From TrEMBL:
It comes from Apiospora phragmitis. It is found in: Membrane. This is Rhodopsin domain-containing protein. Belongs to the SAT4 family. Pfam families: Fung_rhodopsin. InterPro entries: Rhodopsin_dom_fungi, SAT4-like. Residues 275-307 are annotated as: Disordered.
Length: 307
């Protein structure tokens, strides 16, 4: 039998997601600032995305304070508008954060792309994500008219109107499908990026694996899809909405963490004392004979060498 109060579960998943994202972004900043001594605009974007994700987490935590995770009959009536307002704001911030996470990953890939078709696929994927999620963000923000009717409807059901629930659920399913497809494309593309590089097999596998961590976020997106119906569940929305919120938080946290972990290879190499990723040319060592200059590694991608 399900617990009558799921707020501790929602609280724990939110704090865990915020912690994972915060730690990985902080490590990214350390690597970029103190190890590589470079902080590009995509790193600023990652920090901004983390801040916005923090605002999303604050909305969820405030919603918990107003009864999220509990049955509606167990919550004081005056708390309900506040809980709905936090839910409305959280839905909108979720979409914005999702867009920024995809942009952060795409910019990293564009920096290391070596072939025109790599960039074309990345730009096309990013364009679809941004366009559709912008439309979805508009629907999330203005699903009721006037906007405040979203959280005031329980006290004044005739004071406004909201979009048909089929539009809300349908657009959410479509957004989930687009985001999931984008995660897989941006996650599998790194394999193509390193496939023909003259790296040794171990280094090639590690580079592709680290860059492809974005696929992890798609798992949360897929798990989240069966709970989309909770968006339009009105009879006990505080209690029922927990699953959808939990997996939305997990999706954002894993996506943000993956985009930052992909920049931590210098830290992994220092901590683990791994190889430097020298290139192997048909079984020959990457250095010349006695008295000769070392043979420079040829990765075919200046961006990958820098990364």
């Amino acid at each position: 039998m399900a617990s009558e109060d799921r707020s501790p579960e929602l609280y724990a998943s939110t704090i865990f997601g915020l912690a994972i994202a915060t730690v990985t972004v902080a490590l990214r900043c350390y690597v970029r600032l103190f190890m590589l001594k470079v902080f590009s605009w995509e790193d600023y974007l990652a920090v901004i995305t983390m801040i916005i994700f923090g605002v999303y987490g604050a909305c969820v935590l405030m919603a918990i304070q107003y009864g999220a995770g509990r049955h509606i009959l167990d919550v004081p009536a005056e708390w309900l508008p506040h809980a709905l307002k936090m839910r409305w704001l959280g839905e909108w911030i979720y979409v914005v954060t999702s867009i920024l996470v995809k942009i952060t990953v795409a910019v990293l890939l564009l920096r290391i792309c070596s072939k025109p078709w790599h960039k074309s696929v990345t730009y096309a994927t990013l364009a679809v994500v941004v366009v559709w999620n912008t439309v979805y963000a508009f629907l999330a923000a203005f699903q009721c008219f006037p906007v405040q009717h979203f959280w005031e409807r329980l006290g004044d059901p005739n004071g406004g109107q909201c979009l048909n629930e089929d539009i809300i659920t349908g657009s959410t399913y479509a957004a989930a499908a687009v985001n999931c497809l984008a995660d897989w494309i941006l996650g599998l593309l790194p394999i193509a990026l390193v496939w023909n590089l003259e790296l040794n097999r171990r280094t090639k596998a590690s580079v592709a694996g680290i860059l492809a961590l974005g696929i992890i976020a798609s798992a949360a997106t897929i798990v989240r899809i069966p709970f989309v119906w909770q968006l339009t569940h009105d009879s006990d929305f505080l209690y029922v909405f927990v699953d959808f919120t939990t997996w939305s938080t997990t999706e954002l946290a894993m996506g943000l963490a993956a985009s930052s972990i992909a920049t931590l290879r210098p830290l992994f190499k220092r901590v683990l004392g791994g190889s430097s990723g020298n290139v192997s040319h048909k079984g020959r060592a990457p250095t010349g004979g006695p008295g000769q200059q070392p043979i420079a590694p040829r990765t075919g991608s200046p961006g990958l060498r820098a990364w």
